[in-house]
Amino acid sequence: MADRHISLDRVLTRAWTRMVQILFRPFSIERWLMLGFCCWMLSLSGDISTILNIGSNALSHDAADTASHAPADKLAALDNVLNGTDGSFLQRLGTELQWEPAAVQGWSLFIGIAAPLIVILLVVCYWLYCRFEFVFLDDLMRDSTEIRKPWNEFRSIGNSYFAGSLLVTAALFLFNLLFFFLAGSVILDWLKECGAAREWLAFGASRVYSLLFLGGAWFLISLVAGIYIWFFYFLLVPIMYRDRVGFSEGLRRMNALFRRRFWICLLFWLMMLVILFGFGICLLIGYVLTCCLLGFLLGIPYVRAVILLPYWTFLRLSGVELLEELDPLPAGQP
User: Fold this and answer.
1) Is 307 domain-assigned?
2) How far apart are alpha carbons 137 and 195 in whole angstroms?
3) What integer pLDDT is reported at residue 46 of this predicted model?
4) Global model pTM greater than 0.90
5) Which of 135, 184, 254, 284 lies at 20 to 30 Å from 320 by C-alpha?
């Protein structure tokens, strides 16, 4: 039997039509507020990360201000920090930056306590994100605004998605850490040589080639891995929801779809990039037309989730319609 014709235009059209029907026909402020709450939970980990980035930037500015009082002989200081044997690396760094020993110990203690707490907070927020993925999807599929019922019904599937995707995220983090270590070791060896020689030495062609190779390999692998993980949202979650399967089985079925419909999936990814770019342009126009009032409202997390509810609904339904287009259920099966 010939393969069924796959139409991405049909996917996007049906997703848009269902979004309009759910949110605007009829319009219900209660529905928007409840579904907006789900979207807020989905973006909670991103909001926490933004807050942490702002804090880290503030700390880095403070460190830069302190570093401005470092000794004039930067190369001698560099040699002492990297090649010295007097005390630990942090002690030598604190001495060259004129940090008080008590301040170094205080910051070390603070980081040692804060870092595990931050990691725990991010993991909890990510767990909420994974659980609300299925709450939000179930509400859209059933045209409902319930939270408790889908929260309990999809507990095992949501937890499976959390555990599996967290392992993938950890593996990706270790991969980036490995490349950072390899590239950093090349630069660190050069800085050690510069400090020991008291002059800025030529970086060397071999080091340049090494960094180019590492950077190119990192970019290609990250691009492939990023596209693959991107489909967790658009295919894996709908597969797990529709078929009521765990992460590993859902991943196996998603990989099977990739093998059969690789070019269709790649084209869908490119089309969604265009749509996301167009959405960004529309937001920019909205900022200008409202004299940045829209930007102020979008800065409030829950309000942003409610305002952008059509956007999040369209994206989620696009994944559902893509799955239906690539792997339709047999006739008569719900």
Assistant:
1) yes
2) 57
3) 66
4) no
5) 284
